[in-house]
Specification:
This protein has 13 helices and 17 strands. By secondary structure, it is α+β, with helices and mostly antiparallel strands. The protein folds into three domains: 208 residues, Multidrug efflux transporter AcrB transmembrane domain (Multidrug efflux transporter AcrB transmembrane fold); 76 residues, Gyrase A, domain 2; 133 residues, 2-Layer Sandwich (Gyrase A, domain 2), CATH 3.30.1360. A six-stranded mixed beta sheet has the order 10-9-15-14-8-11, covered by helices on one side. The chain has a four-stranded antiparallel beta sheet with strand order 6-7-1-17. It has a four-stranded antiparallel beta sheet with strand order 2-3-5-4. The longest helix is centred in the C-terminal third of the chain and has 54 residues. The radius of gyration is 33 Å and the shape is elongated.
Length: 515
């Protein structure tokens, strides 16, 4: 009776765990104790599937540009005159040292301070070339993908997608699955925006050195039509988005459009106050991903660590800009390598097809077991129902996402569960043919079938673990249900059926087994 009590308790707990999947009319405390409903995957619920490639070479370019700027400032502090700074390729910089005997001093400065640079031989006429070490290049690329993964995850969390899948794939790829998304274009824009925010001064002389030409959008207040206008900005970056600690969208007032209110870090607030105080009367360009969002006139020193970004935003655009500013900029641009959109109707069709295949497969194997093994087959069928119940309950407990390949995994484990019972029943038949009693036949049947059951299920379980570890998307969904199904198969096919057989046989003196 001890075995039967364990089986009954398992059935009751599994059934309670699955209640939220069938009704929403449950008390709030329920999901704090028992699992939430099993989330549906992209193929069953509908949504968007993206594979992004991080442009890691651009991350290397950004790193060498930053290093070049730091090196130029260090040389200026050491009173080493230089000129003609430029980047060659993605990982090499070159410059010319001015003045005799300054080349050796500059080389010493680099070797002492910038260990990630290695000299490139062949410089002439005072030109020095340095290249990022291969270790530094590899580390920069690796870091770019990791930071991009975390940044995109933060953006998606802010966007409010339930049960997203965001994981690395390949060397520089990121797999994103967003179930239930109704506006794929907006989601792609939010995820793929680099969000490099920079503050520049507008140039007073457009022909002066160090001036670059950017564009922005201006909206006519009467017709509300928009058109691009040019801006000449100084190349010097006064401040970047790294100085932002928070960003919130605001709807705007008095006929003004939505805007983004930003809160700066303490250091960023001090820098912004110095910038505005030193440049009263000039225009400050706020540049996002190379496009001028706004260029207001600095009317006075701005303290308090707060500022606003205005532009021709809709409310959704302002909200999304605030999200990407809070989540941080991507370290390098990303491009969409693969894109699939699954509609809700297709998801419903998939659920219907999966349910139909499950019911047909279950009906066939259940009928076969009852016809071929009689009462023993009925016992196996009851254990099969417990197997399905426990399998789904465990998935709910671990927040496993149910996908179409996952349904295929469930159907597969149905056959594996019955296969174990077939081995046991055949062993029991052999013992009965030898003249063994019912109790002895049961004991021998289970003990002799156990090695074969464990061998086949353990090897399949290990294969499932490998698929789960190294697979992605549909493969992961299949592997998850396969591994859970194998665990419940061993419990139900061996433990549960043994408990039910003991109840059927009982403690009678000469019991028989219908098999």
């Amino acid at each position: 009776m001890g075995r039967l009590a364990v089986v009954a308790a398992s059935m009751v707990f599994s059934a309670l765990a699955l209640v939220p999947n069938f009704t929403t009319n449950i008390p709030d405390w329920w999901t704090t104790i028992l699992p939430k409903p099993i989330p549906l995957g992209l193929d069953l619920r509908g949504g968007i599937h993206l594979v992004l490639q991080v442009q890691t070479d651009k991350a290397v370019e950004n790193q060498i540009d930053t290093t070049m700027d730091q090196l130029r400032r260090s040389a200026r502090e050491k009173e080493i005159a230089t000129r003609d700074w430029k980047r060659e390729g993605s990982d090499t910089l070159s410059f010319t040292v001015v003045g005799e005997n300054k080349g050796a001093e500059m080389q010493k400065l680099i070797s002492d301070t910038f260990g990630n640079l290695v000299p490139v031989p062949g410089g002439e006429g005072g030109i020095l070339r340095y290249k990022m070490s291969q270790a530094e290049v590899d580390q920069t690329k690796q870091s770019a993908v990791e930071i991009a993964l975390e940044t995109i995850r933060n953006r998606v969390d802010e966007f409010g997608v339930a049960e997203p899948t965001i994981q690395r794939t390949g060397k520089d790829g990121i797999l994103i699955q967003l179930p239930g998304i109704q506006d794929p274009a907006r989601a792609k824009a939010l995820i793929g925006k680099t969000a490099q925010l920079e503050f520049h001064l507008l140039a007073q002389d457009p022909n002066a050195p160090g001036v670059k030409r950017l564009t922005g959008t201006e909206v006519d207040p009467v017709t509300h039509s928009s058109h691009e206008i040019p801006y000449n900005v100084e190349q010097t970056i006064l401040m970047t988005g790294a100085a932002i600690s928070d960003a919130r969208h605001r709807p705007g007032q008095m006929g003004e459009g939505p805007y983004v209110a930003i809160t700066l870090t303490p250091q960023g607030g001090n820098t912004f106050e110095r910038i505005t105080g030193d440049n009263v009367g000039r225009r400050l360009a706020i540049v996002l991903d190379g496009k001028v969002q706004s260029a207001p006139v600095i009317k006075d020193r701005i303290g308090g660590g707060r500022a606003v970004i205005t532009g021709s935003f809709t409310l959704d655009e302002a909200r999304d800009l605030a999200i990407v500013l809070r989540a941080g900029a991507l370290p390098a641009p990303v491009v969409i390598e693969e894109e699939r959109t699954v509609g809700p109707s297709l998801g419903r069709d998939s659920i219907a097809a999966g349910t139909r295949s499950f019911l047909i497969g279950a009906a066939l194997v259940v009928s076969f077991m009852v016809i071929y093994y009689k009462v023993a087959g009925l016992v196996a069928d009851v254990a099969l129902a417990i197997h399905i119940l426990m399998m789904l309950a465990i998935m709910a407990g671990f927040r496993g996402v149910l996908t179409m390949p996952g349904i295929a995994g469930i159907v597969l484990t149905l056959g594996m569960a019955l296969d174990a019972n077939v081995l046991i029943n055949e062993r029991i038949r052999e013992e009965l043919r030898k003249g063994q009693t019912a109790h002895a036949a049961l004991e021998a049947g289970y003990s002799k079938a156990m090695p074969a059951i464990l061998d086949s299920n353990i090897t399949t379980f290990l294969s499932g673990l490998i698929l789960f570890q190294f697979g992605s998307g549909p493969v992961k969904g299949f592997a998850l249900t396969l591994c859970i199904g194998i665990l419940t198969t061993i419990f139900t096919a061996v433990f549960c059926t043994r408990a039910m057989h003991e109840v059927v046989v009982g403690n009678r003196a000469n019991p028989t087994i219908s098999i």
